[in-house]
Amino acid sequence: MRGDTTTGVSIMKIQPHHFDVGDILAQRELPIRSDIFMPELHSALSHLGADLLLDTINNLKEQLANATPQDETLASFAPKITSRITEIVWSEQTALELYARYRALYGFKCLTTSFVDKQVQLIEVQKPLDQSPSQSPLPPGQFTFHRGRRSLMIGCAGGTLLEVTQIRLEGKKTMSAQDFNNGFLKRAASLQFKRNKHVACC
């Protein structure tokens, strides 16, 4: 979600009345590909964790003797995930940051924004092709329909563009960007996505 390139699993001792503070018995890393989505990463971590647990049990005496205290300077805080994590702030997030969040939440929640006082869920988002600032960048939240790619190109922070091919407008079924263009954009007074007035789950 934050663009990290590595994750992993750890087997550790349990300390009474404390959480995630015990000595580490075993640890393995897993690279995070730039094109991986949450379900695939979840599956890979579950298999890696199962293998590591079996190895730890089979070599428990040695693992306990070589347990390593955690380095608190390397710890990071994992905030509670709420529905607001889906909300897009176009002026603060680049296209790559939004694509990373889309991959991290894929199959769990949809990124959300607002259009003419209706909530919009971004159902299918494409990997940004070019993240150098555009010569004619769209203001954050403003969008246009790209006929050649049949997608919405939405302005993000840093002059970057997010490409969206499927969306769901509040009260409507999932539709392609082309259908959204044909059915709504031609009669819309503004081509601007805005910050949500409310947030709902997929």
Largest sheet: 6 strands, antiparallel
Using only C-alpha atoms, the radius of gyration works out to 21 Å
Q: State the share of residues found in helices, binned by percent.
A: 10-25%
- Strand proportion, as a percent range, falls in 15-25%
Mean pLDDT: 87
How large is the count of helical segments?
4
Give the beta-strand count. Answer: 8
Which geometry do the CA atoms define? elongated
| Helix and strand pattern | EEHHHEEEEEEH
The oligomeric state of the chains shown is single chain
> Which secondary-structure class do the elements indicate?
alpha+beta
Low-confidence spans: none
Note the gap between the termini.
18 Å
Write the layout of secondary structure elements.
Blueprint: E1 6-12, E2 24-31, H1 38-58, H2 60-65, H3 95-105, E3 111-115, E4 118-126, E5 143-146, E6 151-155, E7 161-169, E8 174-176, H4 177-183
Antiparallel strand pairs: 1-2, 3-4, 4-7, 5-6, 6-7, 7-8
